Amino acid sequence: CAAIKTEERLLATHMNNEGVRNLEICQYHKAAECFREALTKFTLAVQEAQKQHEAFKSTSQTTFPDTLKPETDCHWSSNPFQTDSQECPDVNENIFVYRRGIYILPHLGQEENINSSRPNTFTTESAAVVYNLGLAYHLLGENNKEDQSQNFRKAMQFYNIAASIRKQRLGCPADLIDIAILNNLGQIHHEFANYDLSRACFDQLAKGLTYFHQCGVLEHCVCQCDQDGFMMNVMMKSPDIAAAA
Fold first, then answer.
1. Nearest residue to 233 via CA among 192, 180, 157
2. How far apart are CA 9 and CA 41, in angstroms?
3. How far, in Å, CA of 51 to CA of 36, rounded?
4. 126 CB contacts (<8 Å, ≥6 apart)?
5. 6 vs 114, more confident
6. Cβ atoms within 10 A of the Cβ of 30, count?
7. Residue 188: which pLDDT band, with cuts at 50, 70 and 90?
8. Is the CB of residue 179 less than 8 Å from the CB of residue 202?
9. Which of 12, 24, 88, 150 is deepest in the core (most CB within 10 A)?
10. SS3 for 32-86, per residue?
11. 245: burial class by Cβ within 10 Å (0-12, 13-18, 19+)?
């Protein structure tokens, strides 16, 4: 059983990383297909982990505290190239979208403890894959105006699911993925003219950036062009709808 779970996890990791490689070359449909396959594999791994956990509980009354390890086994991709020579997004756009996907290193989560009080549900990996799937639809929406609304709504759905998974595990924003989700949700809400919701996302984004800066990790985690994009969104004022009318 452990071998089956490990195999499914490795296959899921491979499919996720293949999806991110497709993101980097702007093959967003292929990327979405890979991320969906990765989610299916992680679901199988979670089911097997839960079976193992129940089997352990039936033979022992001992429980062990869960530990929260730093998330050092995920790696952010490069930005999809917008021109032949430009990797950084153009921060002169109307609003900044964080376009980097998340690679998962193959050994992530292999130090799991079967004696833990809860089964391994691969929350870090699952949240990363769901975020990546949301990003694929987000970028599809940017590049296909005909289906833009539909793709943006799918992106919002997966971003919200990823955020929910993260909150179940951590309870508060604690990593760059949380910042990325807030930024990109805010951008989509702005596109749909949901300016109050957009502002709420960007206010939370500002708090997250401040926290990262106070911890001394902002410059280490976020390149300057992405920092500029985040700050542009934080400082952006919502359109005056009444005046426009």
1. 180
2. 7
3. 23
4. 39, 42, 46, 165
5. 6
6. 16
7. very high
8. no
9. 12
10. HHHHHHHHHHHHHHHHHHHHHHHHHHCCCCCCECCCCCCCCCEEECCCCCCECCE
11. exposed
Kindly calculate the radius of gyration of the chain based on its CA atoms and give it in whole angstroms: 19
Tokens of 198: 């957009």
The encoded tokens of residue 181 equal: 């989700």
Burial state string for 129-159 with b = 16 or more CB within 10 A and e = fewer than 16: bbbbbbbbbbbbbbeeeeeeeebbebbbebb
Residue 69 clears pLDDT 50, i.e. is over it: no
**Which residues, listed in sequence order, are joined to residue 86 by a DSSP beta bridge?**
83
Tell me the C-alpha distance between 54 and 120, whole Å: 12
Residue for token pair 């956990």:
53
Taking 60 as the threshold, does the pLDDT of residue 241 lie above it?
no
Q: Quick check: 75 pLDDT over 70?
A: yes
Q: Looking at the predicted structure, is the pLDDT value of residue 85 above 50?
A: no
Q: H/E element holding 181? A: helix 176-191
Number of helical H runs and strand E runs in the chain: 9, 2
